[in-house]
Amino acid sequence: MFFQSNINRNKYFLQNIIFLFFFIFPNISFAAGDAISYPKNDWSFSGIMGTYDRASQQRGLQVYQEVCSGCHGLRLVAYRNLKALGYNDEEVKAFAAEKSVQDINEDGETIERPARSSDKFVSPYPNDLAARAGNGGAYPPDLSLIVKSRSGGADYLHALLTGYKDAPSNKNVPDGMYFNSYYQGNLIGMPQPLYEDGVTYADGTKATPAQMAKDVATFLAWASEPELEDRKRIGISVICFLLVLTILSYFAMRQIWAPIKSRAKKTS
Amino acid sequence: MSKPKFKNPVVKWIDYRLPIFTFMDHELNHYPTPKNLNYFWNFGSLAGIALVTMIITGIVLSMNYTPHVDYAFDSVERIMRDVNHGWLIRYIHMNGASFFFIVVFIHIFRGLYYGSYKAPRELLWILGVLILLLMMATAFMGYVLPWGQMSFWGATVITNLFSAIPVVGESIVTWLWGGFSVDNSTLNRFFSLHFVLPFVIVGVVILHLVALHRFGSNNPIGIDVKGTQDTLPFHPYYTIKDLFGLGIFLTLFAAAVFFFPNFMGHPDNYIEANPMVTPAHIVPEWYFLPFYAILRAIPDKLGGVLFMFGSIAVLFILPWLDRSPVRSSQFRPIFKIFFWVLVLDCFLLGYLGAMPAEGIYVILSRIATAYYFFHFLILFPLLPYIEKTKPLPISISQPVLSGSYTAASSAAREKK
Amino acid sequence: MSTKSDLKSEQDEGKRDFLIVSTYALAGVGAAAFVWPLIDQMNPAADTLALASTEIDLSSLEEGQAITVKWRGKPVFVRHRTADEIKQAQEVSLEGMRDPQTDSERVTKEKYIVLVGVCTHLGCVPLGQKSGDVKGQYGGWFCPCHGSHYDHSGRIRKGPAPTNLEVPSYKFLSDTVIKIG
Question: What is the ipTM of this complex?
Answer without folding.
Answer: 0.90
